[in-house]
Amino acid sequence: MKKMKPSFSHFLVTLIALALAKMPHLVLCYHDYNEALIKSILFFEGQRSGYLPQDQRVGWRAHSGLGDGSDHGLDLTGGYYDAGDNVKFNFPMAFTTTMLAWSVVEFGDLMPPTELRSCLVAIKWATDYLLKTVSKPNRIYVQVGDPISDHNCWERPEDMDTKRTVYVVDAPNPASDVAGETAAALAAASMAFRSADRGYSETLLRNAVSAFQFADNYRGAYSDNLDVRGGACPFYCDFDGYQDELLWGAAWLRRATEDDTYLNYVESNAHTLGADDNINEFGWDNKHAGLNVLVSKEVLEGSTYSLQLYKSSADSFMCTLIPETSSFHIDYTPGGLIYRPGGSNLQHATTISFLLLVYAKYLDRTSQTVNCGAVSVGAATLRRIAQRQVNYILGENPMGMSYMVGYSLKYPQKIHHRGSSLPSIKDHPQPIACKQGSTYFNSSQPNPNVHIGAVVGGPGEDDLYDDNRADFRKSEPTTYINAPFVGALAYFNANPSPL
């Protein structure tokens, strides 16, 4: 990996981090958002599957998964490993892609040119793969790799000898969730590439339309298919229903095409597909809060009052985050981190921070505020909440720890990640077999390969973090934690004003 020359600002951050490590009650006053942005995008190169290009910067990785799809006479190489394992789960991968693309759509103009290019490269690594998965009409490939055999091993992706099972859904069997999210990803990416590569943008949009048609024509959850369920569950089952992905996919197609057909779909299906459930959640499985923010843009701009239901839900969600309002009910840790029970908590902090910034942008552009009962909330308040979350992740927390690997001096050293925790194939050319990797998994030593930019699952509700490779809920990075963080960092890099 190419080393970056330390700047004075980086030196300053290091000194502050050292002081904070000794006196954790202190808070950081400065963050190098540009450094964090660069590293948050670089992370995706360490998650790549397939043939790695010559300009690959993460040097401890090499080619992997080169036979993916070959048992079926297919080329399903490429894409991303979603976390610390070696499986390609398309449901979270598509959501990751949507969030990277949305980051460019909303904040790409704020990114330095080199990082905008790097972000587009990261998106294209995913979309090139996703295009392969929907290349046949009424068929979608939803996963590559058997998770049971994979999770029974601790081996580098370059050494993989586990089953590379291909999971596929054909009509009339349904896959509305994965196909709907894939449609959203391709539509959002078509917008991200519109200026950079018009031809590729059109290809993405054309495939987004066909993926959505499959999702809508054959409704149901992909993990309800018996042939898929054994591979998807319990890892990335559809736990919250497929209906939100249909609205989400249609909303992105509306945004990308400005076609009233999709506007009518989002409007007419709001009640039947659960848009009025007002679910305050956003992530790889539940799109409701993100959907409401996305659709609200048109309402705030005054063009489509018929979508008021979505804006009301978006406003309600924002109010739940404001301690001064009567609607406040989101949990925060004592140190100020948004907290929801379950694994990989920082996925909630990064997605919610992103939504806060996007909604603040929409409010600013239309000179509006959110009415939270007796309290009127403006864009500045939403941005302050988002910045507190971003700063917490970067080290402004009771542990004085950056939860982004490689940022600051104090960060997780023993992350739950196979490639990071095992010697690089370049340093240790001999294969490390399935169970041989257990020695490295059980080691008390730091990972030999620093997975720069990886944001881990994060601390518990008590703000405590044990640097423990075995505690995957806290120590495992995921692509869908990082993806929305890219957009948030892009904003604060351009607008680093203190709270």
From TrEMBL:
Keyword Cell inner membrane in record: no
Residues at the catalytic site: H416, D467, E476
Keyword match Transmembrane helix: no
One GO MF term: cellulase activity
Domain Glycoside hydrolase family: 33-489
Record-level GO BP terms: cellulose catabolic process
E.C. number: 3.2.1.4
Domain of life: Eukaryota
Signal peptide limits: 1-29
Pfam families named among the record's database cross-references: Glyco_hydro_9
Reactions mediated catalytically: Endohydrolysis of (1->4)-beta-D-glucosidic linkages in cellulose, lichenin and cereal beta-D-glucans
Keyword terms: Carbohydrate metabolism, Cellulose degradation, Glycosidase, Hydrolase, Polysaccharide degradation, Signal
Similarity remark: Belongs to the glycosyl hydrolase 9 (cellulase E) family.
Name of the protein this chain belongs to: Endoglucanase
Natural source organism: Spinacia oleracea
Record gene name: LOC110792012
